[in-house]
């Protein structure tokens, strides 16, 4: 085992004797060769045995032939008791003699590792990897790469700390410093072993930037029992949390380990760690695809259709919505778990959206299917349009998450064009409304409308009516075309909202005015890109 050197021998001897697996021993010897961890478990155990045997023969030769250099075995057995050299009974456990190599091998062989609790043993074998891949394949996801994540039982941090303290003491006695950061992390070593096997079995590469995640969640029945002393020593680190079955979360345990004094730790937990009673359980094998985003523009032709589900006090008011009419097709085709709908502004339930439509985007959460050709997107758009006469969509396309930001930027910065059918109580003639056509850049002060005050904060917003064009109909009706700043409340501009919008059409005409119909004629946001549909 060329990666190990003479200074690693006491670490190998110590950990083997206390029931540590070969791969964890490599971690504590700071071996960074990924390939070495992938060697079969039995081969690694044999290699460690040979390493100890070969070094023992060299040592014996040095002890017999050399007079001046003292025997290294003497240095190994010599300990200087310091303040940190305590186990849970107040002492460090006796470091075994290097002559106990065979006993150490028997101690580690066939037992659950006292550090990783079997993670780098049972769960690195081909049979387990095949089980993971079968679960992934049965979930029926589309993916071209994967990222692998693993969640470990919290007490692994406790056991690793205990093992490190033992190794640190041994190395200190030999004059070799060992920093905890030098040890290869368990998750890292596990991924070194698992990645190539998963890649080969799934037929795709591992990629840290992949949107498709395969995750393993490990648990252990003795977590609370082994971490309980930390709650006594550092109670402020463990607070009950919502949706958590135990207070001993990974982050809480790590926080407590950073806080607890070394001598207090050693008084409550064996060092090196004792042999575990149970192997870890692979609690869950989960798959998740990163969200896919679909954008387009919609037209709404009904005056009895809300943009999103209309629910008041838990009771649904109307049977459908723009959001649902579009998303139900997308969720089904992308095989997504759920969705999030957003748009550039919104219209009231009784307002139509005409012209080139309103930009929208839908986030499809955990989609099983992610690859669609342009032709397939056209067919999906047609299916949506054929399903209802209340809405139509256009320019349906896949977009990136960052691109959606352009829609939200335009929501505040761009202009919108409306057509309003207005009634006045006072009889009017054409010349009475002609001045509206000449009114430009009219500034409004709009206090939050009463109808939306339950969901929006009370404020006075300055908005601008850029242009107006009137169409006389009869003595009590006319149509007004307006180009306004985004965010302008048109209904309130017409009737005044009990004086909360100033000026308003009623005040300008010196008459009571109300709005009978309102249409959005254009939303001037140049997004998403227009397609040749």
TrEMBL record:
Predominantly, its location class is cytoplasm
User: Looking at the keywords, is Isomerase present?
Assistant: yes
List each copy of the Pus10-like C-terminal domain by range: 293-524
Its UniProt entry gives the catalysed reaction(s) as: uridine(55) in tRNA = pseudouridine(55) in tRNA; uridine(54) in tRNA = pseudouridine(54) in tRNA
The record's keywords, sorted A to Z, are:
Coiled coil, Cytoplasm, Isomerase, Metal-binding, Mitochondrion, Nucleus, tRNA processing, Zinc
Q: Which InterPro entries match?
A: PsdUridine_synth_cat_dom_sf, Pus10-like, Pus10-like_C, Pus10_N_euk
Q: E.C. number, please?
A: 5.4.99.25
Q: Does the keyword Ion transport apply?
A: no
Q: Name one GO cellular component term.
A: mitochondrion
Where in the cell does this protein reside?
Cytoplasm; Mitochondrion; Nucleus
The record places domain Pus10 N-terminal eukaryotes at 113-287
What Gene Ontology biological process does one annotation of this record name? tRNA pseudouridine synthesis
Coiled-coil intervals, chain numbering: none
User: Which Pfam families does the UniProt record give?
Assistant: Pus10_C, Pus10_N_euk
GO MF term (any one): RNA binding
Q: Known NCBIfam families for this protein?
A: pseudo_Pus10arc
Question: Which family is this sequence assigned to?
Answer: Belongs to the pseudouridine synthase Pus10 family.
**Name of the molecule in the record:** tRNA pseudouridine synthase Pus10
């Amino acid at each position: 085992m060329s990666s190990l050197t003479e200074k690693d021998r006491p670490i190998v001897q110590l950990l083997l004797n206390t029931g540590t697996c070969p791969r964890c021993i490599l971690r504590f010897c700071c071996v960074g060769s990924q390939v070495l961890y992938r060697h079969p478990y039995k081969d690694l155990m044999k290699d460690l045995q040979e390493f100890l045997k070969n070094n023992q023969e060299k040592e014996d030769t040095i002890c017999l032939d050399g007079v001046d250099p003292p025997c290294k075995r003497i240095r190994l057995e010599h300990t200087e008791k310091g303040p940190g050299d305590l186990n849970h009974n107040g002492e460090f456990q006796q470091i075994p003699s290097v002559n106990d190599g065979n006993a150490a091998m028997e101690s580690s062989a066939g037992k659950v590792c006292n550090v990783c609790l079997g993670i780098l043993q049972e769960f690195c074998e081909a049979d387990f990897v095949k089980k993971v891949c079968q679960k992934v394949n049965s979930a029926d996801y589309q993916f071209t790469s994967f990222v692998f994540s693993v969640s470990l039982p919290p007490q692994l941090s406790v056991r690793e700390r205990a093992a490190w303290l033992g190794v640190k003491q041994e190395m200190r006695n030999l004059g070799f410093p060992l920093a905890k950061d030098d040890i290869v992390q368990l998750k890292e070593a596990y991924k070194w072993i698992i990645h190539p096997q998963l890649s080969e079995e799934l037929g795709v590469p591992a990629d840290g930037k992949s949107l498709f995640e395969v995750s393993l969640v490990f648990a252990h029945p003795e977590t609370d029992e082994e971490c309980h002393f930390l709650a006594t020593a550092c109670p402020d680190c463990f607070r009950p949390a919502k949706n958590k079955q135990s207070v001993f979360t990974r982050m809480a345990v790590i926080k407590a380990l950073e806080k607890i004094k070394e001598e207090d730790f050693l008084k409550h937990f064996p060092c090196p760690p004792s042999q575990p009673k149970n192997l870890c359980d692979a609690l869950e094998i989960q798959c998740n695809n990163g969200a896919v985003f679909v954008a387009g523009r919609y037209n709404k032709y009904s005056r009895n259709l809300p943009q999103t589900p209309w629910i008041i006090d838990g009771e649904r008011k109307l049977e459908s919505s723009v959001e649902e009419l579009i998303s139900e097709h997308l969720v089904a085709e992308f095989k997504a778990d759920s969705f999030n709908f957003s748009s550039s502004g919104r219209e009231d339930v009784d307002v139509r959206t005409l012209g080139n439509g309103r930009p929208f985007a839908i986030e499809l959460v955990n989609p099983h299917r992610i690859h669609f050709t342009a032709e397939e997107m056209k067919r999906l758009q047609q299916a949506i349009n054929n399903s209802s006469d209340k809405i139509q969509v256009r320019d349906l396309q896949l977009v990136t998450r960052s691109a959606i930001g352009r829609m939200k930027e335009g929501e505040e910065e761009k202009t919108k064009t409306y057509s309003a059918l207005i009634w006045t109580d006072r009889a009017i003639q054409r010349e009475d409304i002609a001045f509206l056509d000449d009114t430009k850049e009219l500034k409004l002060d709009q206090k939050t409308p009463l109808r939306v005050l339950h969901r929006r904060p009370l404020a006075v917003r300055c908005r601008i009516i850029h242009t107006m064009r009137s169409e006389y109909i009869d003595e009590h009706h006319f149509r007004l075309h307006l180009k306004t700043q985004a965010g302008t409340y048109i209904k309130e501009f017409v009737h005044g909202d009990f004086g909360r919008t100033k000026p308003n059409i009623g005040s300008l005409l010196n008459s009571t005015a109300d709005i009978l119909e309102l249409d959005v004629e254009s939303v001037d946001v140049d997004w998403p890109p227009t397609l040749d549909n």
